[in-house]
Amino acid sequence: MPFDRADRLKKLPPYLFAEIDTKKRAAIAEGRDVINLGIGDPDRPTPDFIIEALERGARDASTHQYSSTEGKLSFRRAVAGWYERRFGVTLDPMNEVISMVGSKEGIGHFPLAVLNPSDIALVPEPCYPPYRSGTIFAGAVPHYVDLTAENNFLPDFDAIDPRAAGAAKLMFINYPNNPTAAVATPEFYERVVHFAKKYDLIVCSDAAYSEMYFEVPPTSFLAAPGARDIGIEMHSLSKTYNMTGWRVAMAVGNADLVAALCSIKSNLDSGVFGAVQEAAIAGLNDESDFVDRQRAMYQARRDTLCDGLSALGFNAAKPKATFYVWIPVPEGMTSTSTCEMLLDECDIVVTPGNGFGAPGEGFFRVALTVEESRIRDAVQRMKKVFGG
Ligand SMILES: Cc1ncc(COP(=O)(O)O)c(C=O)c1O
User: Fold this and answer.
1) pLDDT at 5
2) How far is the CA of 332 from the centre of ligand 1 (A)?
3) Contact between 200 and 159 (Cβ < 8 Å)
4) Which residues fall within 8 angstroms of residue 201, CB to CB, at 6 or more apart?
5) pLDDT digits over 179-195, tens only?
6) What's the rounded Cα separation, in Å, for the pair 227 and 253?
7) Model confidence pLDDT, tens digit, residues 20-52
8) Considering the domain boundaries, does residue 1 fall inside one?
9) CA distance linking residue 333 with residue 21, whole number of Å
10) pTM to 2 decimals?
11) What ligand 1 atom has the least distance to the C-alpha of 248?
């Protein structure tokens, strides 16, 4: 029987890449050797010490029953310990930390906890799409804030319409940033707090990539004075420990905001599998050089890609963090035409910048989630097309 989808689904922006997706599937089906630089998903496995903690947790029958939505106290304590060591941010594990089924889940649900229908959320663009869809699913309205190269892909607070800021209730920020790889300074976060307090905004900071850095370790939004009065931060084990499939993350910060999110979640999910929380604790308490080696690996991949593409005339500046490189398209081309050309002529998949929002037009995103040798192959293939 045909059925009509809910309006909230119809309000999502149209999917722009059906054609590229079809071509990509066709190329793979034809047996072409496609190099996929499109996916922001670590290609290396989760480390053994985390898998071993999962095994031990799975043999403990207490993990076989429903978990609590907020997460085990031992998990919340491990998160608080990690935030203290890593960012110098002291969190109360009882009231300022909960677990999430991946940070995407928390980001998507948070607007339901704080926005009423017709409320406004300031959403940066280009952006990770759930800020937009979570806002729309709450019946609220995104007001887009352009992130531009001129402003280092940080919001330009002076350029935000004061009427929109005054009417808004929530603002999303995400540094280190997907897709632009931009980083934020402590001074930027201080400006965010100032702006949010001026306009009475709640701030939702997404710090999923804070451990994937190559220069100065990024700070947490919550380290900014006053941030905890108005802010919640979403963090995740996914990228740091190669755990995207495990679905475990944390929301931390203002106790009322954390409690509001937990209240929504308790109606929708029943927490993270206890053995996965044990695995996450092992990751958070790890003192080995695992994360350092990950950083070194991504840095080597980044350098191979950026040096190679710069030699071909691209403006491929080396990002200071994340495993993404955000590159302006060649003169006279668009995001879509560049990506189509890379697929048709080089068998390379990258992501068109406009897929992250209109201001992403004129860029494409490369994910450093294949081995360095494959990145070298990709550069060689591009040399044939762009090498003059
Ligand atoms: C900016 C950003 N935030 C959050 C996530 C979600 O990560 P997870 O749901 O695995 O914690 C992603 C995933 O790609 C991301 O790019």
Assistant:
1) 93
2) 32
3) no
4) 122, 165, 168, 169, 170, 171, 195, 230
5) 999 999 999 999 999 99
6) 8
7) 788 888 888 999 999 999 989 999 999 999 999
8) no
9) 19
10) 0.96
11) 11
Q: Which domain holds residue 146?
A: 48-284
216 and 321 inside one domain: no
CB of 128 closer than 6 A to ligand 1?
Answer: yes
Given 224, 249, 284, the domain boundary residue is 284
* Average pLDDT of span 353-368: 96
Q: Which residues contact 309 (CB under 8 A, 6 or more apart)?
A: 316, 325, 327, 379, 382
103 Cβ closer than 6 Å to some ligand 1 atom = yes
Q: pLDDT value at position 388?
A: 67
Ligand 1 atom index nearest CA of 247 = 10
CA of 102 to the centre of ligand 1 (A): 8
168 and 252 together in one domain: yes
Q: What distance in Å separates the CA atoms of residue 309 and residue 327, rounded to the nearest whole number?
A: 10
Q: Is 238 in the pocket of ligand 1 (CB under 6 A)?
A: yes
Closest ligand 1 atom to 238 CA: 10
Q: How big is the chain by its Cα radius of gyration, in Å?
A: 21
Say whether both 74 and 175 belong to one domain: yes
Considering the domain architecture, whether residues 41 and 84 belong to the same structural domain is answered as no
Task: Say which DSSP state 45 is in.
Answer: P
Cα(103) to ligand 1 centroid in Å equals 6
Residue count of the chain, please give it.
Answer: 388
How many domains does the chain fold into? 2
Find out whether the beta carbon of 183 lies less than 6 Å from any atom of ligand 1.
Answer: no
Rounded Cα distance, 129 and 336, in Å: 18
Q: Which atom of ligand 1 is nearest to the CA of 178?
A: 1
Ligand 1 centroid to Cα of residue 258, in Å, is 18
